[in-house]
Design goal:
With about 450 residues, the chain is of the alpha/beta class. It has three domains: about 190 residues, 3-Layer(aba) Sandwich (Rossmann fold), CATH 3.40.50.1100; about 100 residues, 3-Layer(aba) Sandwich (Rossmann fold); about 120 residues, CBS-domain, CATH 3.10.580.10. The protein is built from 16 helices and 16 strands. The structure holds pyridoxal-5'-phosphate.
């Protein structure tokens, strides 16, 4: 089985269960991972639909030019389809969009015009206005206008909605999606509510955008508009594709919370996704928690695009620190934690043949709860107070037996550069501490107490 061209591979993206990030909730959260589309975003779907509708209406003819204002992803979807169908592409973008996005569009043959972000939509310099002007000037061209083009919403009524309904066997109870042109949320929402009107449609907006206040009050409030960093969601206009009747509730997520959640998805779920994906999951978790969703609730959250477009920002520690998005605590390394210890630990070891009674004495004298166990100088295991206690309480005679009889696996090793996020993941029920292998081979220890100590500072 093969596809005749790349655009035939658009859609049928997977639903992936969120685990570590959502395991504090009773309800199940499934992520619709749209970076599996060939252009690595949800926009591939509506880009193709807009082109096909324009062709059907005779608005786009062979050798024509496609013009669009985009945050990058729609441009990518249009450029891939244009490459297959032989159209030229010209895109206007706001200068807040990442350099990666601009470079990628040029890489797939599009011409990109970068416009100032902080101008009003009707300003002739805005990326909306420049696109409109170009379409008037260039013969045999079409301004796709994803904001008001009905094909945007139709694409999701015809593809994304039915996929989710089928993949969840109709058991979905909540749909969460970020709001930009609103084609994604209103298309999927329209289809799902036709299947089951009780399904709740939750929109995720950002601070500096008009949607939440508009939804709650019907008021388009200019005071809600101010520059923000999250890419792809939020608006300072109301697109025609925005049908508020489909949406039940809107949550706002800050640039910082979205960025931190995006990094967490990569590190805890292995989902290397874009910034607005962090917004969507943060909003989904907040809603599920605040509404106390139950075990019969099934929430689907849309993850629009891939992480590669945000390497210079969300995934760049310097950029994150420069924007005060990284709390110093989350940046601490093993070396720094060791440096913050009230008193340097004297590493205590035991030989595997020593007696448990000696271990009890050492733990009491040194006030320590775990001891690495050695054999011929090599660390081969670890002794924890809970295991010693359980063993001796079960059978006091065990006091005279070798520690090797109750020891567990060696404590995990980390490097001086290992960050607290990784260390805190390693320290758990089994491992009450980690060992730090220094550059000169010296070994030190970081315990649960040490972590509490540095976080309490
Ligand atoms: C990264 C990203 N997230 C979310 C969205 C919002 O999708 P929609 O425009 O369908 O509301 C977009 C839209 O461009 C996007 O690029």
């Amino acid at each position: 089985m093969y596809y005749n061209n790349i655009i035939e591979t658009i859609g049928n993206t997977p639903l992936v269960k969120l685990n570590a990030t959502a395991d504090h909730l009773k309800s199940t959260i499934l992520a619709k991972v749209e970076y599996f589309n060939p252009g690595n975003s949800v926009k591939d779907r509506m880009a193709l639909k807009m082109i096909e509708e324009a062709e059907k209406k005779g608005l786009l003819k062979p050798g024509g030019t496609i013009i669009e204002g985009t945050s990058g992803n729609t441009g990518m979807g249009l450029a891939l389809a244009a490459a297959v169908k032989g159209y030229r592409c010209i895109f206007t973008m706001a200068d807040k969009q990442s350099q990666e996005k601009i470079d990628i569009l040029r890489a797939v043959g599009a011409e990109v015009i970068v416009c100032p972000t902080s101008v009003a939509p009707e300003d002739p310099r805005s990326y909306y206005s420049v696109a409109r002007t170009l379409a008037k000037e260039i013969p045999n061209s079409i301004y796709m206008n994803q904001y008001d083009n009905p094909a945007n919403t139709v694409a999701h009524i015809e593809t994304t909605g039915p996929e989710i309904w089928e993949q969840t066997e109709g058991k979905i109870t909540h749909l969460v999606a970020g709001m930009g042109t609103c084609g994604t949320i209103c298309g999927i929402g329209t289809y799902l509510k036709e299947q089951n009107p009780d399904i709740k449609i939750i929109g995720v907006d950002t601070y500096g955008s008009v949607f939440k206040k508009l939804h709650e009050t019907g008021v388009f409030d200019e005071k809600e508009i101010y520059p923000y960093l999250t890419e792809g969601i939020g608006e300072d206009i109301v697109p025609d594709n925005c049908n508020m009747e489909v949406i039940d509730h809107i949550i706002k997520v800050t640039d910082k919370d979205a960025a931190l959640m995006t990094r967490k998805l990569a590190r805890l779920e292995g989902l290397f996704v874009g910034w607005s994906c962090g917004s969507a999951v943060q909003g989904a978790l907040e809603y599920a928690y605040s509404q106390q969703l139950g075990k019969d609730d099934l929430m689907v959250v849309i993850l629009p695009d891939h992480g590669t477009r945000y390497l210079g920002k969300v995934y760049n520690d310097n950029w994150m620190s420069d924007h005060n998005f990284l709390d110093k605590e989350t940046q601490l390394t093993a070396k720094q934690i060791l440096g913050m210890k009230e008193k340097p630990a004297v590493m205590v070891y035991m030989d595997k043949n020593q007696k448990l009674s000696e271990a009890l004495k050492i733990m009491r004298q040194q006030g320590i709860s775990q001891i690495p166990v050695k054999e011929n100088g090599e660390i081969i295991g670890s002794l924890t107070e809970s295991r010693v206690l359980n063993a001796v309480l079960d059978d006091p005679a065990l006091k005279e037996s070798a520690v090797s009889s109750v020891m567990s696996d060696p404590l995990p090793f980390v490097l001086p550069s290992t960050r607290i996020e990784i260390i805190s993941k390693l320290i758990n029920q089994e491992n009450p501490a980690v060992l730090v292998q220094g550059e000169k081979g010296e070994v030190d220890i970081i315990t649960k107490f040490d972590l509490i100590n540095v976080l309490a500072n």
